[in-house]
Structures are given as structure tokens and as C-alpha cells.
């Protein structure tokens, strides 16, 4: 599959700003500084498309990217970068506003086909478990993506994925995927998962 284009469309802070054309959408979520922007850039093969920052909480709005591919089954879809949860160098008031905005988008937008929940392959925290539990309760398809896998050896990586499956009660190996935005390991597998999500209602 070839990516024909990937472009930033808009930033949203209210439901009335969400895309209304009902194109399928896949959302990216994870705790602050887990590597969402880096993964999106790696996945879409575009340097600097999503802004990368070392400061937790840089993404404060819902950022929408339109992706066009040569695959007839996923010709166009939205990749949606959601604000990070957990610790962030922003005010408590700003952080408090993220949760309802994220929940409104995920539960109120017809186009959402699934969520890629990014967790650090080197360890999780309670916010990750809370996010998984909420997504499951809401009936939203979710795939755990273990980021920064290049920082682990091959044996450590296998142990990390096993620990994640155990921590979140996941039995199927396909429900957790290792990814490195540095080496791009896991990119093909993640595209397969996205294709499955986008075409799930066909």
C-alpha cells in the first residue's frame, strides 16, 4: 500500500469543529510524552507532520490529519491525534478540559472506527489502565501499541509485550503491537490493523 498524501486539516476544541463528512477515522491516544506525534510521523512517512516536543502536554487540541492511500478499501480516512493524558506541563484547568473533549469525540463521532492506545514498552501507569477500561466500557475497538521498542533488546521486548497482555488481561497476541518510530519496526503490522479497523463495518 502506498500513501498518496497525508495533510493536516484542522485542530478542534469543540464538537461542532469535528469533521462532519463521516469519513472513517482512527484515533491515537496515550499518556503525555509516550511518542504519539513521532509514531504518526513514522506511520505516515512524513517528517514534521505532527509536531514533536519533549515537553509533556504539547498536544492540547484534537488534531485531524487526512490520509489518502492507493488501497481502494481505505482510500481516505482521518488519523486523529488526541491530547495526552496523565502528567503534562500545563495547568490543571487545561488538563481537566481534555477528558470531556476526548470522550465527546470518541463516543459522539460516527466516523470513529477504533483507537490506537499508545503505551511505553518500558512500563505502564494507572492512567493507561483507566483508558483501556473506559474504551472497553464504551464499546470502542482498541489496539495497544507499545512505543519506543527500539530501547529494548529483542528478549526484553518479548517480555514487555507479555507483561502488557497480562496487565490488561489481553489473551490474543494481535491485541498488542510493538512499534519503534526510530527503526519503524511494526509499521506494516500497524497498517494491517488500521486497515482492519477502517473496513470493520463493511
Structure commentary:
The structure is a single chain. With 202 residues, the chain is of the alpha/beta class. It has a single domain, classed as P-loop containing nucleotide triphosphate hydrolases (Rossmann fold), CATH 3.40.50.300. The chain contains five helices and seven strands. A seven-stranded mixed β-sheet has the order 1-3-4-2-5-6-7, with helices on both faces. The radius of gyration is 16 Å and the shape is globular. About 8% of the residues have low confidence.
Question: What is the compact description of this entry?
Answer:
The chain is an alpha/beta fold.
Please give the structural blueprint.
Elements: E1 3-12, E2 25-30, H1 36-44, E3 62-69, E4 76-81, H2 92-108, E5 112-120, H3 126-137, E6 142-147, H4 154-168, E7 176-178, H5 187-198
Parallel strand pairs: 2-4, 2-5, 5-6, 6-7
Antiparallel strand pairs: 1-3, 3-4
